[in-house]
What we know:
Layout: E1 3-5, H1 37-51, H2 58-63, H3 68-80, H4 86-98, H5 106-123, H6 127-134, H7 141-145, H8 173-183, H9 185-190, H10 198-201, H11 207-212, H12 224-230, H13 234-237, H14 240-251, E2 254-255, E3 269-270, H15 285-309, H16 317-347, H17 350-374, H18 377-388, H19 391-398, H20 406-443, H21 450-461, H22 465-475, H23 480-511, H24 514-530, H25 543-553, H26 561-589, H27 638-643, H28 662-686, E4 692-694
Helix pairs in contact: 1-4, 3-5, 4-5, 4-12, 14-24, 15-16, 15-19, 16-17, 16-24, 17-18, 20-21, 20-23, 20-24, 21-22, 22-23
Amino acid sequence: xxxxxxxxxxxxxxxxxxxxxxxxxxxxxxxxxxxxxxxxxxxxxxxxxxxxxxxxxxxxxxxxxxxxxxxxxxxxxxxxxxxxxxxxxxxxxxxxxxxxxxxxxxxxxxxxxxxxxxxxxxxxxxxxxxxxxxxxxxxxxxxxxxxxxxxxxxxxxxxxxxxxxxxxxxxxxxxxxxxxxxxxxxxxxxxxxxxxxxxxxxxxxxxxxxxxxxxxxxxxxxxxxxxxxxxxxxxxxxxxxxxxxxxxxxxxxxxxxxxxxxxxxxxxxxxxxxxxxxxxxxxxxxxxxxxxxxxxxxxxxxxxxxxxxxxxxxxxxxxxxxxxxxxxxxxxxxxxxxxxxxxxxxxxxxxxxxxxxxxxxxxxxxxxxxxxxxxxxxxxxxxxxxxxxxxxxxxxxxxxxxxxxxxxxxxxxxxxxxxxxxxxxxxxxxxxxxxxxxxxxxxxxxxxxxxxxxxxxxxxxxxxxxxxxxxxxxxxxxxxxxxxxxxxxxxxxxxxxxxxxxxxxxxxxxxxxxxxxxxxxxxxxxxxxxxxxxxxxxxxxxxxxxxxxxxxxxxxxxxxxxxxxxxxxxxxxxxxxxxxxxxxxxxxxxxxxxxxxxxxxxxxxxxxxxxxxxxxxxxxxxxxxxxxxxxxxxxxxxxxxxxxxxxxxxxxxxxxxxxxxxxxxxxxxxxxxxxxxxxxxxxxxxxxxxxxxxx
Length: 695
């Protein structure tokens, strides 16, 4: 007789339809306008950890239901939060999560979520407000503590060429130490890497411990764009709203210094030619790059003149002028390294060329002077041969302006990545080369010397396979032919083919994100040239005049306003012709608008003081939490799940970013199909608890 078996219902798996948190209600971060930078980071990180706890790609977070909680956060931040450090905190968290390797991809998903929220938040603002949020610099605790002393005169304390505001000498020693810490830009930015792990660890620390050691202190005086460049937030930097700000800085529509005076303050502002000092145009990145090209053209002309003349017995006036150019170039690079820090300085590939050029110039000068002093003209000839190597780097450096164009700017990151992969692959090549060279040298030691065999093996490796076949019998009648055949096969077919394929993959990998790579390089250069804390920036070779006049006086005279005023006067005297050329150029091209607000629309009042949304208890406000409706208790049939059309969720125009490619569209469709299949599996498993009959 048939046996009726009643099985127990299987537990429904706890699986959501998307890699986003399945919490029914997530508390949105309550961020006040007065909250410190570290407090903003803690509140935002707590929310990101809650809503993103499973792996998901950037496109899933941007286009599918996986990013619903992120859209809720963006709406909350744009409607109710006025803290100016919002974008800075999001990008700092993006750096933090991007530096963590958890093996599952959760940290990468959180990093992508922070980057998406950052640029979506900017799209909710006017262009004027976006400028203020992106260029807001994180203040340090010393400045916040001393805000009550803002009415004190700012003309006391130590001043040098890199201080943006003069400190009062009567302040406490702790405040002096804080100001010294702020001025050491290179050391501070190097500490950014050490403070990554403390950003989220500090969420569990006590307030007393945080006051003693603030983990976010290395971010002091960094704006959002600088943090994005350090964090490799290339998608953020490639967004239209961000690129418009960077282009405004490049063209001089957004400036940080509007006048040259002792009490000038570094602050992002829109350029107005009716009120701004004409000498403030010396800090515009576009004009800095133009002068840099002119400087290198003069450098190249002096270089060719000295090499063509090549006086072995004495130093000519042209050679003296070349040494002056070298010294000015070296001092300018040192100043740039101090101002930008090692993080930004290393991000620009052309700085590597500059360092090599300086090293070659120093070697040439040492060999030249030693040879002339000892009357060793052989050493002098070697010095000129070393100087000839300078052209390998100086000529590309003169043409470095081409890297600002989209075509050439895309090729440079490709060549950089291909060079890294090539060096890695050469390790295997060297191992194979040394092994066969040793074998051939020992087997054929009676016929060929080691240098001769090394040259033969090198020719074979670079494609001259016939050389190996001609001498394989001479090396050894027994072992020579098989060994040579194996070596030719490895070097000419296997290794070269693998190297070509690997470099092709490297090129394809970078060229896929060509626009992001180019805009990242472009953004790094603009930020490196514009965000310096130095009020007076002398163009080379005029920087040697300031170095020779003011640096010796600082050794025995007190530092006060007179030094800064003297540097300003010297800058006006030496750079007046350059400023005149800039003014004539702007008059002809009409590049500077007269209103000062045409390019950046929005309210002229400070966006940080804008009206916040109504509080949650008012009827016209939306809930504080990211409420997500519960799933219905009654599950649909499997046929309904499969046949039911997928509702098309409308994506706001400002969330779409750039137009998606075909690959991105296919990825989005595949993610939607996965969600539907997941729902089908869940509905099938829910019906497994019904009674079954087994005969």
